[in-house]
Design brief:
By secondary structure, this protein is mainly α. The mean pLDDT is about 85.
């Protein structure tokens, strides 16, 4: 058993090594890709700064408070996109028959798919998101307690796990509906945009669906409230902000169930 596990890990390392070598073979091109990939995350932060250029508060939150949310969202999404985001290529794999070849190998299908096209160029986004998060925490003038120190570390990890779970769960729709890419993007990238702002700026059914129906409020909004020691203007109890890691674990469990269901019911396209 130990020997088999060691062989599996060696195979995964070989896949990762092959990707690293192929993507960094042309160093100048890779460096340009690293810089170019900062755009999306940088734009999210700049947008918030521009908004606060014309207002002192957004949804009842100051710039420093809002930066906690955008920093947490930026790092969590960028990390998930780096590690799991390429799973959104599933429709192409199903259409071309590549998924069939993956399923024939004596390795887990999901790890293979994640390692086959791991976009190392996106590491710059994750590092930039981490920088924004550190700056936001340092400038927020938090009242430090052991619990808040722990939450500062766990909240970004929980957010990345949550976004990664959303990537996987929405990708499984492709097993039954190949042209589901736009639907998946509306949830994943729409969730990124949603979590970049206080949920109090949204209203009605839209806020209810994304914030609590899908759980996106627990990515950045609720953890930020817990760190700031603020009561939720929407009325949720104070412990909700500390529930973010638990929500992320529930999301991961749901994504695992969805993935297994999709794999078991997958039917080859015959390509």
């Amino acid at each position: 058993m130990a020997e088999r596990r060691g062989g599996t890990l060696t195979a995964y390392r070989a896949l990762l090594g092959a990707q690293a070598r192929s993507q960094t073979a042309y160093r100048a091109s890779f460096a340009i890709d690293l810089v170019g990939n900062l755009g999306a995350t940088l734009f999210d932060v700049v947008t918030v700064l521009v908004i606060f250029g014309v207002t002192r508060e957004l949804g009842g939150f100051t710039l420093r408070e809002a930066l906690l949310m955008v920093g947490l969202s930026a790092f969590a999404f960028a990390t998930a996109d780096l590690l799991v985001g390429n799973i959104e290529r599933i429709p192409r794999y199903v259409r071309t028959g590549l998924l069939d070849a993956v399923l024939l190998r004596p390795l887990g299908a999901l790890p293979q798919l994640l390692l086959m096209d791991l976009p190392l160029r996106k590491v710059s986004r994750a590092l930039f998101g981490l920088t924004v998060w550190i700056v936001a925490v340092a400038s927020a003038d938090l009242h430090w307690t052991p619990g808040r120190v722990l939450l500062v570390v766990l909240a970004p990890v929980a957010g990345a796990v949550f976004f990664g779970s959303v990537f996987v769960a929405t990708a499984t729709v492709s097993f039954f509906w190949i042209e589901s890419g736009e639907l998946a993007n509306s949830v994943t990238y729409g969730g990124r945009d949603f979590t970049s702002y206080p949920v109090t700026v949204y209203g009605g059914w839209f806020r209810a669906l994304f914030a609590y129906g899908l759980g996106f409020a627990f990515v950045s909004y609720q953890p930020a409230l817990a760190l700031l020691g603020r009561a939720d203007p929407l009325g949720l109890p104070s412990w909700a902000g500390w529930a973010a890691p638990g929500v992320a674990l529930l999301a991961a469990a749901a994504a695992a169930v969805a993935w297994r269901f999709g794999i078991r019911h997958y039917r080859s396209t015959g390509s």
